[in-house]
């Protein structure tokens, strides 16, 4: 790593850590920004790097929320009894129980989502073509419906997490740092992953899957593992969101197919899919744009979102990084002429 | 769990219940087959996997519903029933227009690009359409409650609303019309030629751009008719579209492209399977059952593909 | 000669009513160069596709290194070390040549831990050596998609070598290649066979090329095995001459 890079990354890291103190009023927005970065980066693992566009990664977000909730409640109480009371009973958590729930719930959510990804991936990746996108979208929608019919986890009413047993501002800070830690871990993880042979292999799957198969790459295995790794991070992010939101319900919050489920795709497309920084930049761009303009759309924002997807997909599919790559290929270490090279 | 076992027991205790479920399933399945045929058409001819398929269906339903609710036709002395029947051709015409607009604005730039471009673009389209309908018509479920009688068989155990029968007949009539059109008309022949080899068709002087535009609006029109039939008997809601899209994909995946008898059979089969599913698990699991069927079809395809030593494109 | 590495016995394959392959039996000697010739439409590519697993066969058996492979799918067969190149070349157009080579590292020989490693300096050196070997060293950092068709073909060949296959099936390696480069390609194929010990099985239309290179040649016509033997025998076989001239 060159000195300049080191300084750049160091400054970014310092900014990330200092952000909630620099802008104390925007802790929640900043935490949401990290959430967007996490889901965008993990969507890009399959969508950008492997060429398989998932429309249902939100499934892992929702599932992560519910797994974390069930684990946290089960640590201290009986889940069925707790949800049946739906806020009517008095339930308390000790500090130890709360943090045990936070740790085990987040890890458990990640693990459970990875297992789900492997199973669904085995079915939907086996066939090439549109089945992955449609299958994942279907699974996310169906999951929302199933959970809202499932009384043990609160049904359509949703489920309530324990309150943070302490000061609320410190709670916001904790959530911010959890998201930030998860996001930084994910960024470091993918930048390492894309530099390995595994990363090259999933790029090969994107560029020409038939060739990759004919060259003996374990395509199905690589696809499943990639999606499972993405699922771990989305699931864990869902778990942190569950603690952040305290109360959530299945259709509008957990399995919010149309909100976060599509935002992540838009972020990646805007920033440029298949690049390391594209999803991050796209998430920042989209989040800033959304926070500033959303309320001025007066109910038209969802239509505008659909139109945005269409326009971006049709006219600007390579995103900002793709645009830059085309204009300045030398920035990306690519050569256009056959001259002798160092 | 007890409820599910009880429901399954019911099927064995009263065999006639099976017959009722199958009849219901075949009737709704005929409508599914219609939308799936449209999908197979655009998929086969222009290689566009249209995720807005279900939203065209719903939009067609709202067209007819709006026509009947405004009461213009009733003002001319027509009954609700007659107005609903006129709603079908109106929905066909309106949706053909909307399909054409969608083609000109979006799809024409997506044809012959990679798979995911068409999926994502049509998904964006689906979101827009669902949200526009939500703004226009609200998020409540809607249906035209028509004043047709119901036929009863087997001591009233089996009820067949005449409205449903009319719907099925219209669906069948429309299917026949489309088949005849594809077989005999010049445009139908051009469509079939383009689907086999678009470049060869262009060389032979077929205006493929026109063929694509026509195919896409034909698809939207077929979906519109399906929606107008649905709203006569069943219910629609702005966000139901995606379920119809998934069903259409299930059917086309199971039947394959360019296989009309297969599409009809798969459509009827999936209608029946869904009715069984909702009988056993309850009415609240409609989407989950559709997705479960999709996954089952995919697993079945996987097993079959393994024997054929190849991957499905 | 150390025995057969690919054994095809009694393989038939029909597409609809057309019998593309009828009761074909043949074998490819380990470590040798075997040629497959025949007029257009005689079923050569069909036979290749049957061997590497692109479609099921109707009857017969195909064995590779003493394992029945007629029921396996493409990636499984590729992982046994039986590789093919495509008539229409397939390379990863968006990557540069070195990346194309590095992706072609033999994944079948990798453990999970190996797959999560970065490419070592040796890998890079090997990739560059092989690119040098096919004459693409100077273009190694260019986007593979921007290479000419002939260069892509050479790149695909180098990628196949990178994969360290046991046997390599080449579908018309000289088609579309600049005639002045063909001699060089023949030398490289020979070298690959001699130095890396890769068994070659080649479909070829260019008689001069195949007669020069192969130890054994099989000739197909109308989906049937017409003749087989050493190049000299085939050259003088009246049936082969007739098949190519269209006499029956």
Could you explain the architecture of this structure?
The complex is a heterotrimer of chains A (342), B (313) and C (248). With 342 residues, chain A is mainly alpha-helical. Chain A has one domain: ABC transporter involved in vitamin B12 uptake, BtuC, CATH 1.10.3470. Helices cover 71% and strands 1% of the residues of chain A. A two-stranded antiparallel sheet of chain A has the order 1-2. Chain A is globular and about 60 Å long. Chain B has one domain: ABC transporter involved in vitamin B12 uptake, BtuC. In chain B, a hairpin with a 4-residue loop joins β1 and β2. Chain B has 313 residues and is mostly helical. Chain B has a two-stranded antiparallel sheet. Chain B has 13 helices and 2 strands. In chain B, α12 crosses α13. Chain C starts with a strand and ends with a helix. The relative contact order of chain C is 0.18. The mean pLDDT of chain C is 85. Chains in contact: A-B, A-C, B-C. Chains A and B meet through α6, α12 and α14 of A and α6, α11 and α13 of B.
CATH topology label of chain B: ABC transporter involved in vitamin B12 uptake, BtuC
Spatially, the strands of the biggest sheet of chain A line up as 1-2
Helix coverage percent of residues of chain A? over 70%
Biggest interface, residues from each chain: A-B, 42 and 47 residues
CATH architecture of chain A: Orthogonal Bundle
Strand content of chain B: under 5%
- SSE class of chain B: mainly alpha
* Count of all domains of chain A: 1
Number of strand segments of chain A: 2
How many separate helices of chain A? Answer: 15
Q: Main beta sheet of chain A: strand number and arrangement? A: 2 strands, antiparallel
Structural domain count of chain B: 1
Q: Report mean pLDDT of chain A, rounded to a whole number.
A: 88
The succession of helices and strands of chain A, N to C, reads: HHHHHHEHHHHEHHHHH
Query: Can you count the beta strands of chain B?
Result: 2
Secondary-structure class of chain A: mainly alpha
Highest-level CATH class of chain B: Mainly Alpha
Rounded to an integer, what's the Rg of chain A over CA atoms?
Answer: 21 Å
